Each structure stands twice: as C-alpha cells, then as structure tokens.
C-alpha cells in the first residue's frame, strides 16, 4: 500500500484575486472586497474606472476579503469596514460578486480534478486532494504533481494558489499557509519536530483564538510546547475529547480520510444591511430583498440538484438579538415561489417591532432531486404548479408568494 500523501490547495486571496483579473489596473494596490452595489466601479468616458475608496465608506459592513497589499496595513477578513477604513483609508472598495467567485471556484476545482480526482471540497476556495499512489509521487513526495496542479489552476483561471503536501490533512493545511502567496510546501513525517513544533499553536486548524489564549495562560505558545504537555493534564484541563485531540494534533497525527462526497445538511442565503431597516418604513426594500434571497436559494438548490422540505429564516435585530423560525413543507421542493411562501409564513411568527440588521433564508432536510422524483412518481398526481410569484392564491386560500403581506410590525 503506498504511503499516505495528502495535499491542501488554497486559492490566494481568492475574491480579491478574481476582482484583480477584472480590474488589472488595481494590481499592487490595497483592495478590499465587501462593499455594496453602490460601490461598483464607475466607467469613465475616456476608458478606465473611478473606484470607491474605503475612506468614504459609512455603514456597519464587514470585510469579505482583502488583497495582500491591503493585508499589509492590517486589514483582514471579518474586520469591520469602518475599522479597516482607519487602517487603509486609501484602499479601493469593491462590491462582492459571488456568482463570479463561484464560477472561478468551479474552474479551479475541475482543473485540479483532472490531475488528482480524489478531492474533498472544503469551500469556495480550498480543497483537499489524496495524492496517494498517483504516478510519480513515490520519488519526489508529490512535488511534481503539486506543481502540475498549480500550473493547471493558473491555466484555467489565471489565479495563483498555495499547496501543502503532507502525510495527512491536518499537516497539509498547516503547510499550505507557510509560504503564501503562490507557495508550495512539502513535509515528511520525520520533519514535524523541526518544522512544525516551532510554529505558534494557533497554526493548528481547530485551535481558535479562545483556545490559543487559554493555552498561553498555561505557558503553551508553540506546537512543540503543546506536544510536550502531559496528555492526562490536557484531558483534565480541556475535556476528554478536545484534550485528547490537542495531544494528537500537536504530534501531527490525523487519520481523517479525504471525503470525496458528502451530502449537504442545508443551503442558505443571507444578507447584512448597510443600515438598519424598519419593517414598516422600509417594507418595500425588505420585501424585495427577501424575495431575492428566496430566488437565489432556489437557484442554489436547483444548480446543486437538491430539493428541501424544511425552510427557515434568520433575523438579526439592531440589538444584535438573533431570531430564527422554521417550517416543514408537505413535500420537498426547489421552487422559488414555494420557498418564498414558506419563508413568509415563518416571518409572520416574529415580532418585527425592532429594526433589522440581517436577513437570511435556509433550506434544510435536503434530498437529491432525482430521489425525490422517484418517490413522487409513486404518489398520486398533485394539483397544478403555479408560475413564479403568480398573483393567484394557491389552493387552501393562502396568499401567493409575491402578494403575501410581509414585514408588518406590531409597533411603528
């Protein structure tokens, strides 16, 4: 059996890099992604664009990602936009374009799959690949295959990526981050003491800020110090499961397989408003956004080949309180009108007297569409399907998706 060889491929500053392909004149400039439509570049009569600048931003949005030039000023993902503006006021602010990012995600994953087909999808910009037993990997530890992956991704997208190759997923993910951007890092098991143990403990995926701070309180700052800690003490201090995992992770042990396919638990869409919106005074805006989320969620389901039987909403109010409501449907669906109607029913069960900061819609209890069709074929035929947002009322007297009176607050 060939030795285990796992690669972690991580696209470099993915969203920002995709935008730089569209606006090459911004190469080398600090660029922040996370603005709204009003921050879209404005074409100039003589060619080129007028760009929004971070110093002019006002609102409570957060940074989706930033170019490496912006990161040099301390800007990073999930940072409040106003704070980012203080660090890099001259940075260009661009709106997010998730449809474009998803397209580039599909491209780089297809290019990688043509070389190493055993892939675990970990999100829009990263994948694990099982290189074990691939031709040529025995002699060079996977270097030639990793270089071929980098070249194929660049040819398919014009974008750079960083790859870590190691005996397991945990170590491969650490390695992919060691030489960014455009990095390639290979690690053998016997190199763990010299190359992994000197790194900060937080470099291990699974040790977050709170755990890192707690470890530091015990004088444990580096992975090697964690590896030297008494396993019994770790279990006593951090609990049986997490304490045992900390010991294993510090020694670079990880037996998790590369999972080439897993069924999603749920699919969701949400949006954070640049200003708080009121259920009555901003009803038209909220209703349009709500419908747009449902349409996009239905599109996500249809594109991925799933139908849902559970629809839920998520609301965050101006006091940061989060409320969710869910409903189970009579049958699975990926129809936008049905999703909108079900989400509207959930919304009517919420007190909307406070202003809203965030609105989201989630589809759960998923089933592959083909399996749902097979099951439906054995059932008696259902009534006619209404066109999207038909003004007619469905059977039973419920209002149509478009006309349902939503965002009615109990107080003004």
Write structural notes for this entry.
This protein is 35% helix and 22% strand. It has 412 residues and is of the alpha+beta class. Among the domains are: 14-98, MutS, DNA mismatch repair protein, domain I (3-Layer(aba) Sandwich), CATH 3.40.1170.60; 201-262, DNA polymerase, domain 1, CATH 1.10.150.20; 266-377, Dna Ligase, domain 1 (2-Layer Sandwich). The strands form four sheets. A five-stranded mixed β-sheet has the order 8-9-1-10-11. α13 (283-304) crosses α14 (336-347). The model is unreliable at 384-404 and 408-412 (pLDDT under 50).
**Poorly predicted runs of 5 or more residues:** 384-404, 408-412
CATH class term of one domain: Alpha Beta
Q: Helical amount among residues, as a percent range? A: 25-40%
N-to-C order of helices and strands: EHEEEEEHHEHEEHHEHEHHHHHEHEEHEH
EC number: 2.7.7.7
InterPro entries: DNA/RNA_pol_sf (IPR043502), DNA_pol_Y-fam_lit_finger_sf (IPR036775), DNA_pol_Y-fam_little_finger (IPR017961), DNA_polymerase-Y (IPR050116), DNApol_IV (IPR022880), PolY_HhH_motif (IPR024728), Rev_trsase/Diguanyl_cyclase (IPR043128), UmuC (IPR001126)
Catalytic activity: DNA(n) + a 2'-deoxyribonucleoside 5'-triphosphate = DNA(n+1) + diphosphate
Enzyme class: transferase
Topology:
Blueprint: E1 6-11, H1 14-22, E2 31-35, E3 42-43, E4 49-50, E5 52-53, E6 65-66, H2 68-71, H3 81-87, E7 92-95, H4 98-113, E8 119-121, E9 126-130, H5 137-140, H6 143-157, E10 161-166, H7 169-176, E11 184-186, H8 192-196, H9 209-217, H10 223-228, H11 231-238, H12 240-250, E12 266-277, H13 283-304, E13 306-317, E14 322-333, H14 336-347, E15 356-368, H15 369-377
Parallel strand pairs: 2-7, 10-11
Antiparallel strand pairs: 1-9, 1-10, 2-6, 3-4, 5-7, 8-9, 12-15, 13-14, 13-15
